Amino acid sequence: MAKVFNVDSSFDYGMLAGASCAFGVFDGVHKGHCFLINQAKQTAAENGGISVALTFDIDPDERFHADRLKKLMTNERRIAALSQTGVDAVVVLPFTPEFSAQSPEGFLKTTFADSVPYALHVGCDFHFGARAAGGVGDLRAWADKRGAKICAHDLKSADGKPITATRIRLLLADGKCEEALALLGHPYSFEGTVTKGRGEGTDMGFSTANIELPGMMQTLGEGVYAAWATVDGVRYKAAMSMGVAPTFADATATCEVHILDFSGEIYGDVIEVEPVHFLRPMMKFDSLDALIATVMDNISWVRENLREETC
Ligand SMILES: Cc1cc2nc3c(=O)[nH]c(=O)nc-3n(C[C@H](O)[C@H](O)[C@H](O)COP(=O)(O)O)c2cc1C
Ligand SMILES: Nc1ncnc2c1ncn2[C@@H]1O[C@H](COP(=O)(O)OP(=O)(O)OP(=O)(O)O)[C@@H](O)[C@H]1O
Q: Ligand 2: distance of its center to the CA of 132 in Å?
């Protein structure tokens, strides 16, 4: 696992001299991002320098479009995932208002100080600096003066379209877990703290762990899903609903997870939920009996059909 370096007053910019850096936000650490990072590993091997995933502490869109941002990973998980890509180091720049307001040249000066990387890998659509004014041309102008190499790659595609975080978010919003997973190259999951619900699930014969997710992490579309739930390191089959239960006027939880073959008090615990298959839309039921019968059917489906290899 690569060491993570936060760029603060103690950061040694010298580590970027001669390094091969892949630069971006990398939400999801998807197959396209991994392709870019592998390119950085290759040029690092070429000159004997280190490979670096160069990223930001927050997703810039948290600063500019927090109201409509839907993320694939929290910042902590994104940085942890980057550290497991086989790079030598992850360097995390603080995306402060001052940092984001810089011109493209100022942005590069703040990022590298006087160090010159060996190679800088970006996608051909990469933009940076205030109002995203900087592009690959600005990178090349900066690099040419310093003897660095800019590698602007065509975006890795699947089914004729670039793999992007935006594309994967839209698939998840549409409940298309399998297609999202194919582009991510690893499971999609989120974590949340179990909160107290209305306490009615147990009376209905299926207890549920209620999870409140911040708006930014409500990326998965409303519906009922087959999922895996990890509690205290143990992985269970689960049937989950996403979206406020429309049958109940007082319902608040965004995500409710029935964990099969599990009983235990987990209020306040953080659990990981990995939705893998859309079962049906959320429904407003006319009677409790109808709701119970449908949810029991969903639970049976999960018990009979969910297999490790479907994740
Ligand atoms: C697999 C599953 C499917 C669900 N489907 C629906 C649904 O279609 N409509 C609905 O109103 N509630 C649905 N719910 C939410 C239940 O109504 C809710 O879990 C139950 O009311 C218990 O809520 P409580 O834990 O807050 O007491 C579903 C829950 C689960 C676990
Ligand atoms: N499919 C891809 N192939 C190669 N490089 C990519 C691909 N997608 C993104 N990149 C590059 O990876 C870096 C990180 O990109 P970024 O975090 O903006 O990801 P993204 O998937 O394009 O996200 P979004 O859809 O939110 O714009 C950038 O240099 C970007 O150009």
A: 14
Model confidence over 139-197: pLDDT tens digits?
999 999 999 999 999 999 999 999 999 999 999 999 999 999 999 999 999 999 999 87
Task: Report H helices in 22-117.
Answer: 31-47, 60-64, 75-82, 97-100, 104-112
Contact between 157 and 35 under an 8 Å Cβ cutoff? The reply is no
Q: Report how far residue 74's alpha carbon sits from residue 88's, in angstroms, rounded to the nearest whole number.
A: 22
Q: Which domains does the chain have, with CATH numbers?
A: 3-7+14-162 (3.40.50.620), 189-310 (2.40.30.30)
Residue 153 CB–ligand 2 contact under 6 Å: yes
Task: Report which bound ligand comes closest to the CA of 23.
Answer: 2
For the Cβ of 273 lying below 6 angstroms from any atom of ligand 1, the answer is no
What ligand 2 atom has the least distance to the C-alpha of 155? Answer: 3
Measure CA 245 to chain center: 25
> Rounded to 10 degrees, what is the CA torsion of 126, 172, 254, 265?
-100
* Ligand 1 touching residue 283 (CB < 6 A): yes
